[in-house]
Amino acid sequence: MKSSNVFYLVYTLSLLLGLLCVIFVITWSKGYRGGFAWDGSAKMFNWHPVCMVTGLVVIYGNAILVYRLPFTWSSSKLILKLVHATLNLGALSLAVIGLLAAFGFHNKMHIPNLYSMHSWVGFIAVILFGLQWLLGFLCFLLPCTPLWLRAAYRDVHVFFGLCILAMTVASCLSGINEKLIFVLNAPNSTASYKKLPPEAYLANILGVLLLCFSLTIAWMLLKREWQRPNLHASALSDATEPLLTED
Ligand code: HEM
Description:
Bound molecules: protoporphyrin IX containing FE
Strand content: under 5%
Order of helices and strands: HHHHHHHHH
Number of strands: 0
Distance between the termini: 32 Å
Structural class: mainly alpha
């Protein structure tokens, strides 16, 4: 099969998986955890998984793919960079809302903050994500950034981009597992986690979908022949081109 056909197959699969992740996390929060509110209750907490999965995995995963889509290669580089930056800003905004939901719930219920491994890894991921956005903005958007710095930073940006995806998926998987253990093993629960009630099925499948989504994204990012052709031809000129310059 032609390489571009394989790309579109994997890309379609990633879109489908991303959509399923969002549907599953909303169904879990709405159908099994009581829906949404912004009042410090468990319903406020429900924004946390929805915002994190949608923002830091699905939207972020699509944002880092922008330069790999063959149908965008003929468009202006400026537009691609702006789409990349805007999608990432959307993901970051959702992450902040998701964190506020978790902290707000903990504070109202007098639960300590940042005690779990999940919260440590997740918090570091969000800080790195914020720094990555800021440094990307400063290095690639500002025309006054020296060319050597722009070129030197490019590889670091790409490396941390993938690390952040790995960390956000790890945070989601640990968070899903933690939540299932909390709610299904609570004294008032009708079926414990080990009995695998429908809620556990749904959330376990959500975890597997998140993993598969991130693997398709990593595959498309890492395969050299699916990178923008001009990246092969002139990596330096591409890396050093300021964001605010048309191709
Ligand atoms: C990128 C994704 C995620 C990040 C960065 C993240 C980050 C965090 C942070 C920083 C906290 C601490 C809040 C506090 O101490 O008040 C937290 C709490 C929590 N999160 Fe997440 N989270 C993510 C995804 C998820 C998902 C998908 C779930 C699934 C339900 C989840 C479940 C929880 C639970 C149950 C808590 C409270 C217990 C604890 O602090 O560990 N998280 N999260």
